[in-house]
Design goal:
This protein folds into two domains: about 10-60, 2,3-Dihydroxybiphenyl 1,2-Dioxygenase, domain 1, CATH 3.10.180; about 65-124, Roll (2,3-Dihydroxybiphenyl 1,2-Dioxygenase, domain 1), CATH 3.10.180. The protein is built from two helices and nine strands. It has helices spanning about 20-30, 85-95, and strands at about 10-15, 30-35, 40-45, 50-55, 80, 95-100, 100-105, 110-115, 120-124. The protein starts with 8 loop residues before the first strand and ends with a strand.
């Protein structure tokens, strides 16, 4: 097997209002701003440097629907947590758009939607 030279991932998130979305991702999810190129983009990260989110100011933001499938997946990526109940409670208390926690047989999770309709899963 060949050792990968890759070490992380960058996710680009289209947003209509960069300031509003930056505030949402920092306040709701605790992301940290690591680079700003206003008014066009803000790069954020979670607890480590392996995953970065680049909020990109976009026009006519329209979210693609995840294709129908037999696996039950409805969004393009998941954020992982060690305590899905706690983060769900915190997000609900802050007024976030979340679904109820579901048990998927082996893991639990819920969906989270940002102000522009970008949807992701949060799983334990």
């Amino acid at each position: 097997m060949i050792k990968s030279l890759l070490y992380g991932v960058g996710i680009f998130v289209p947003v209509s209002d960069l300031k509003r979305s930056t505030a949402w991702y920092t306040e709701m999810l605790g992301f940290e701003v690591i680079h700003t190129d206003e008014p066009n983009a803000v790069v954020m990260r979670m607890n480590d440097e392996k995953v970065s989110f680049c909020l990109v100011r976009s026009y006519q933001v329209k979210q693609p629907e995840f294709p129908k499938n037999d696996y039950g997946v409805g969004q393009y990526f998941n954020l992982h947590t060690t305590n899905v109940s706690e983060i769900h409670q915190r997000l609900v208390a802050k007024g976030a758009d979340v679904t109820e926690i579901e048990d998927f047989g082996g893991f639990k999770g819920f969906s989270l939607t940002d102000p522009d309709g970008n949807r992701c899963g949060v799983t334990e």
